[in-house]
Amino acid sequence: MSSSETRVSALRAHPAAGWSLLASELSVLFRRWRTWALLAALAAVPVLIAVAVRITGGSRSGRGPQFLDQITANGLFVGFTALVVSVPLFLPLTVGVVAGDTIAGEASHGTLRYLVIAPAGRLRLLAVKYAGAAVFCVAGALVVILAGSAIGAALFPIGPVTLLSGTVVSIGEAFLRLVLIAGYVVVSLLGLCAIGLFFSTLTDVPVGAMAATIVLSVGSQVLDELPQLDALHPWLFSHYWFGFADFLRDPISWDSFGSNALLQLGYIAVFGALAIGRFTTKDILS
Amino acid sequence: MTDAAAAITTSGLTKRFGARTVVDAVDLAVPRGSVFGFLGPNGSGKTTTIRMLLGLVSPSAGDIRLLGEAMPDHAARILPRVGALVEGPAFAPYLSGTDNLVRRDTADRYAPSATRAHRVADALDRVGLSHAAGRRVRAYSLGMKQRLGIAGALLTDRDLLVLDEPTNGLDPQGTREVRSLVRSLAGEGTTVFVSSHLLAEIDQICSHAAIMRAGRLVAQGSLEELRGGSGPRILLQTPDASDAVAVFRRSGLDAVVTAEGDVEAPAGAAAPPAEDLVAALVAAGVRVRAFGVRSSSLEERFVELTGEGFDVEQ
Predict the structure, then answer these.
(1) pLDDT of residue B205
(2) Pick from A11, A17, A281: which is nearest to B111 by CB?
(3) Residues of B with CB under 8 A from a CB of A
(4) In a domain? residue A13
């Protein structure tokens, strides 16, 4: 058995923590053309808004999305406006694509079986895939506010911002608030990521999981609009998606952030558990 | 066979999908250090068995031990020592050959990251893919993907290799290379479990084999044991078949005329030496076109056990 012992010694004696799989997941995610196409689509939102406003010379107060009429006076509002526009559809759409692809995408390529027998460990694989989708949420929200701030600064004057509560803050603090709002949006999307991950464990067809995730995000917002379903509203994962306006008050109100974070944690727990239950017992036949 | 001496043992291994039993009470015993051919027609349950061995599919009943430990309970400890090619190679088409192997290697927590680049390059070199390492897998031919799949099984030093149809899609040259690769791995002490529906490939490299048919294991053992079923046969080509049969009968051989008009007889231990038989044939005026003693090939045994034709049995 001596030959066998020397050969085994080529492996580690103890398993590594396994960060390299996460690094690999992120590097693969951000080397795909599709990821960059999604991010480019998100970046196009503030650019389109800014260019349209610049060409038409602004809109009358009270029409269009929140903050739209303030853009001509202060370019920093491009990022805010773009987030308001992206939250209901564009961000859930891109996140749905990435989260729905997590497990089903590997299954459709057949690479899932090789990751499982590597062995990646099914739980670890789920955690890594979820982390990858979460990092994409961060990237998506940052792209919107960064592209928005850049195009806003390029096309419009920028200056101190008047908050909803009437206080005026410096450009620096206004940008910090913008980053906080992006953070709020990221947290908002984490529940949807968990839902996408669960759907992704159900099928070998990534498009199916993506579509289901996106449809659910739209469905949740539609239900949130129906006054007859009042009792249901606080339980919908999209219920606090627009609560980030609280970050434009002075002092900052953390109420909706707290409720939102708690709600998203609940969704992560429930759909994470469903995904684990499904994936750890699943026969991998792809 | 004790567990320590066995690379793979299964007992009563069964898998049902709904009402359909795909693998039915299979008792495999793969000795360590063997090259074990896992044979059977398409649809006989080979791949499902392999998926169960590797913990991809959970058995409906039965136990599996790999390298002396229970699967799938100790999968995290056993699988790093097992390299596998399961139901064809599979890669992310948008990544290069190297990047695909690196990605697979990062999933193995026992694979040291310090030597990763080196091990990936070695594995690619071993299957002759170094020249295409940087190309996207999208642009690979079927044979190149197959080679890359085999490289994926060789990323670290393995105690057991499970290769499912490793020569699929390879040209004759590639098939020869895979054979010599399997031989050299076996020479290093790795147990190789190789499945195929093409017998001729396995006949030449295996020390042991098992034959599946419709989800059941119908034969298992060393190649000698498997061939032993029918023993060597004498084959004579002659225009004077009936005279030849008479000569054979006189020598105590139970000869028959085959459908092709040739004469065939079992060459048991009691049979006279071949040279004496030929002399007797010539002396009796039988014109001999060709005379040979053939040991039965695994192929015949395989056909005997599994039947001929393309029908997938349910």
Answers:
(1) 87
(2) A11
(3) 51, 54-58, 75-76, 79-82, 84, 86-95, 99, 102-113, 152, 156-159, 188-189
(4) no
Written as six digits, the tokens of A105 are: 């995408």
Q: Which residue has the tokens 């928005």?
A: A148
CB pairs under 8 A between A and B: 116
Report the C-alpha gap between A91 and B208 in whole angstroms: 57
Q: How near does any CA of chain A get to the CA of B145, in Å?
A: 13
pLDDT of residue A239: 93
Contact B107 A118 (CB under 8 A): yes
The pLDDT of residue B64 is 95
Residue B66, φ and ψ in degrees, nearest 5: -115, 130
Contacts of A240 (CB under 8 A, 6+ apart): A188, A256, A259, A260, A263
Could you give the number of structural domains in chain A? 1
Residues of chain B short of pLDDT 70, as ranges, are: 1-4, 228-231, 269, 296-298, 307-314
Residue A75 is assigned to a structural domain of this protein: yes
Q: Do residues B80 and B110 touch, judged by C-beta distance below 8 A?
A: yes
CB contact (8 A) between residue A11 and residue B80: yes
Q: Do B76 and A15 touch (CB under 8 A)?
A: yes
Q: β-strand B35-39 against A168-169: which pairing, if any? A: unpaired
Residue from B2, B54, B52 nearest B25 by CA: B52
- Work out the minimum CA distance from B88 to partner chain A, whole angstroms: 9
CA distance A20 to chain B (A): 6
3-class SS of residue B93: coil
Amino acid B208 reads: H
Average pLDDT over residues A211-237: 94
Tokens coding A107: 């299954």
Q: What is the pLDDT of residue B202?
A: 75
Contact A244, A185 (CB under 8 A): yes
Strands B61-66 and B69-71: antiparallel
Residue of A9, A24, A32, A117 to mutate, testing the B interface (most B Cβ within 10 Å of its Cβ) = A117
Do B106 and A24 make contact, defined as CB atoms within 8 angstroms? yes
Which tokens belong to A11? 């492996």
pLDDT at B104: 94
Mean pLDDT over each residue of chain A, to the nearest integer: 89
How near does any CA of chain A get to the CA of B127, in Å?
18
> One-letter amino acid identity for A131?
A
Query: Which residue out of B15, B106, B155, B162 would a mutagenesis test of the A interface target, given it has the greatest number of A Cβ atoms within 10 Å?
Result: B106
Residue A23 forms contact with B (CB below 8 Å): yes
Q: Which chain A residue is nearest to residue B17, measuring alpha carbons?
A: A283
Using the structure block, give the residue that is written with the tokens 């046969």.
B233
- CA dihedral of B240, B241, B244, B248, whole degrees rounded to 10: 180
φ/ψ (deg, to 5) at B15: -135, 125
Q: What would the pLDDT profile of A149-161 be if each residue is shown by its tens digit? A: 999 999 998 888 8
In a domain, A179, yes or no: yes
Tokens of B47: 């791949």
Could you tell me if residue A7 is inside a domain?
Answer: no
Residue B48 Cα, gap to closest chain A Cα (Å): 9
Task: Pull the structure tokens for residue A240.
Answer: 């606090």
Determine the structural domain holding residue A152 and report its residue range: 18-281
What domains can be seen in chain B, in order of their start residue? 3-227 (3.40.50.300), 233-294 (3.30.70)
Residue of A nearest to B104 (CA): A115
